[in-house]
Amino acid sequence: MNILSIQSWVAYGHVGNASAMFPMQRLGHEVWGLHTVQFSNHTGYGAWRGEVFGAELIRELVGGLEDRNVLPRCDGVLSGYMGAAEIGDAILDTVGRVKAANAEAHYCCDPVIGDVGRGVFVRPGIPEFMRERAVPAADLITPNQFELDYLSGRSSSTLAGAIAACDAVHATGPRVIMVTSLHTEDTPDDSIDLMASGPDGRFRLRTPKLDISVNGAGDAIAALFFVHWKASHSTAEALSKAASSAYGLLARTAAAGSREILTIAAQDEFVTPSRLFTPEKI
């Protein structure tokens, strides 16, 4: 497949496109990367250098792809962190242009807004843009638990609540939802759940909780889920393969004591995960 991925880029480490592109490529897909920023390293270090690119640059680059007449061959658009609502407008404009050229293309939005314990960490206006514009335009979304609660206006602290929250967000547009870092009333303390909901059912997958805190894992699992779903149109299969690969990647990273995820060193996990987790239907 050919996937257009519009995200940030760092020279050192793996977040944004530097986390999302290689797993898709390792699985045999062409990835056309459009970078919204070029930074020396991710912002979790507290200091970085680089430049934020404007929305017009995205439109200009997409125009160049149109000049090459390749948009009809684009199978999907993936987006993640948006630094400003203007960037979001340019991404949604790109989605429209791609879908006009290829009616079979899909848009996967990782609605980066915040996280449990940290709250909202994006610029003012971005949460509202995600909820009111980006998510309704998406075919697939990959929120974490905090983002699901924000998008739905509900609490997902129970499994029934998480299902109801997904249903509320489905009603706004997205056909398929994968929720990461889910902890409900029956999630053991030493485990972490993921949930996926689509036209073919709802599924929960549980993995051991790893003692690790790194940036970029969400970017990788969103990309993996998107291409596995595109290849199979099976919500359960996409969840199983994406979660298993992400767990293997993080387990290798934790074992090495690395602050950056080992996207390159652990690349075999994208193709043949060391441990395959099977989701349960709920």
Task: Walk me through this protein's architecture.
The chain is 40% helix and 22% strand. It has 282 residues and is α/β, with parallel strands linked by helices. InterPro entries: PM/HMP-P_kinase-1 (IPR013749), PyrdxlKinase (IPR004625), Ribokinase-like (IPR029056).
Task: Give a nutshell description of this structure.
The chain has 282 residues and is α/β, with parallel strands linked by helices. It is 40% helix and 22% strand. It has helices spanning 17-26, 55-67, 85-101, 126-137, 145-152, 159-170, 217-232, 235-256, 268-271, and strands spanning 2-10, 30-39, 50-52, 76-79, 106-109, 114-115, 119-120, 140-141, 176-182, 191-198, 201-208, 280-281.
Q: Give the helix proportion (percent range).
A: 40-55%
Write the H/E string, N to C. EHEEHEHEEEHEHHEEEHHHE
Structural class: alpha/beta
Poorly predicted parts: none
Summarize the biggest pleated sheet: 10 strands, mixed
For the record, give the distance between the C-alpha atoms at the N and C termini, rounded to a whole number.
31 Å
Shape: globular
CA-based gyration radius = 17 Å
- Tell me the β content: 15-25%
The strand order across the widest sheet is 3-2-1-4-5-8-9-10-11-12
Mean of all residue-level pLDDT scores? 97
Structure summary, number of beta strands: 12
> In DSSP terms, counting alpha (H) and pi (I) runs of 4 or more, how many helices?
9
InterPro entries: PM/HMP-P_kinase-1, PyrdxlKinase, Ribokinase-like
Pfam families: Phos_pyr_kin
Protein name: pyridoxal kinase
EC number: 2.7.1.35
